[in-house]
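Q&A log
Question type: sequence-to-structure
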Amino acid sequence: MFELLFYAVPVLMIAGFGYAAYLLIRRALRIGRTWSRGLTAEARCLRMYTTTSGGGGDTSVRTTVHHVYEFTTAEGRSIRFEEEGGPATVLDGDFVTVRYLPERPERATALPPSRGTLAVTTGLGLTFLGVAITFCVGFIVTAHLMFSAMNDVIP
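Response status: OK
Response body:
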């Protein structure tokens, strides 16, 4: 029963890492599709704010910039959306170009098209998750070999 813990926890971690990889790929595909097939509109930045995380003890602080934009679609619908990770130079009241898919305008993006950056960041994220999954699989194999060796020694 105790041995089950050494299998269950890494398997749950692998499932979590796999889901994170799925979300990362889905986001990259959505943004790429919006850049290539999306319509453009002029949006106004309604609000810009930052959030911070970390900073406890000796850890570094990570600051994320958030923007709230509002634009009007070609059909005349007013859409408001929030996006993180945009440039800190866009302030309240500024106008920017957004891209959106007509069937999902609430998933618009104000990020300028940069396929290379998207590919690199997605690749780095998937590499990190792949290393974490590989570590978990290695842990499971090592634990299995150790428990098998103990069973051979102690009947």
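Response note: The CA atoms of residues 104 and 148 lie 53 Å apart.
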